Each structure stands twice: as structure tokens, then as C-alpha cells.
């Protein structure tokens, strides 16, 4: 082989290596958490607080309707919101349990 061919092969391999390094460097930030985005714990906290607030508001509406201070339509709406919140929480719980059982079934 002459030196031109060897030099061309080396430049080609160097270019491929550099390209692979650049691709990795560009893809790597996608795997790192973004500073602007909330963490999973922060999101879970917001969801839990919202769920508790929905239940508390529904409870207050139910108490007010028992003593005659609330509109019956407000009570029905509060009960529907509570039912939706509880169904969503149960669905999430079922998915988490299902995922955990799937992990347990994985071979080690």
C-alpha cells in the first residue's frame, strides 16, 4: 500500500471517530435532567396536594349542603370531581403495581 492510501484511511477513521464523539456529545444532554423542568418528586407533590385539595373542597361542599348552605348542583359537581380524582388515583396505583410485578418477573 502506498502512503496516500494509508493516509486517506487514517483520515477516514479519524473523521468517523470524531463524528461518533460529536454524536455522543449532542445526544448526552438529552439524557441529563433539564434545569427548567420540575423533578418527578416535585410533580408528584403537586399532584398529591391537588388531590387532597379536591377532596377537602368536596368535603366542605358536602358539609355545607347538609346544613342547607350549598346548592345541590354544587354538591353533584363536587362529588363528580371527587369520583374522577379517586378513579385517576386508583388507575395510577394499578399501573404502578402492574409495573412492579412485571419487574419481579424479569430474570436476573
Please write out the topology.
Elements: H1 3-31, H2 40-66, H3 72-105
Write structural notes for this entry.
The protein is an all-alpha fold and 108 residues long. It has 2 domains: 1-32; 35-108, no CATH class. The chain has 3 helices and no strands. It has helices at residues 3-31, 40-66, 72-105. The model has no long low-confidence stretch (mean pLDDT 80).
Offer a concise description of the structure.
83% of the residues lie in helices and 0% in strands. The protein is mainly α and 108 residues long.
Gyration radius, rounded: 29 Å
Q: Say how many strands there are.
A: 0
Order of helices and strands: HHH
Low-confidence stretches: none
Whole-Å distance between the termini?
50 Å
Fraction in beta strands: under 5%
Q: Total domains, how many? A: 2
Share of helix, binned: over 70%
Look at the structure and give the mean pLDDT. 80
Helical region count? 3
Per the principal axes of the C-alpha atoms, what is the gross shape? Answer: elongated
Largest sheet: none
* Broad structural category: mainly alpha
What distinguishing features does this structure have?
single chain, 108 residues, mainly alpha, 2 domains, 3 helices, 83% helix, 0% strand
Amino acid at each position: 500500500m502506498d502512503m496516500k492510501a494509508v493516509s486517506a484511511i487514517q483520515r477516514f477513521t479519524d473523521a468517523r471517530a470524531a463524528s461518533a464523539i460529536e454524536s455522543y456529545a449532542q445526544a448526552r444532554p438529552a439524557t441529563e435532567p433539564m434545569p427548567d423542568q420540575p423533578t418527578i418528586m416535585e410533580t408528584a407533590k403537586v399532584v398529591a396536594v391537588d388531590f387532597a385539595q379536591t377532596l377537602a373542597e368536596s368535603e366542605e361542599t358536602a358539609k355545607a349542603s347538609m346544613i342547607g348552605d350549598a346548592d345541590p348542583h354544587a354538591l353533584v359537581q363536587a362529588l363528580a370531581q371527587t369520583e374522577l380524582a379517586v378513579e385517576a388515583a386508583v388507575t395510577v396505583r394499578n399501573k404502578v403495581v402492574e409495573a412492579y410485578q412485571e419487574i419481579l418477573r424479569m430474570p436476573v
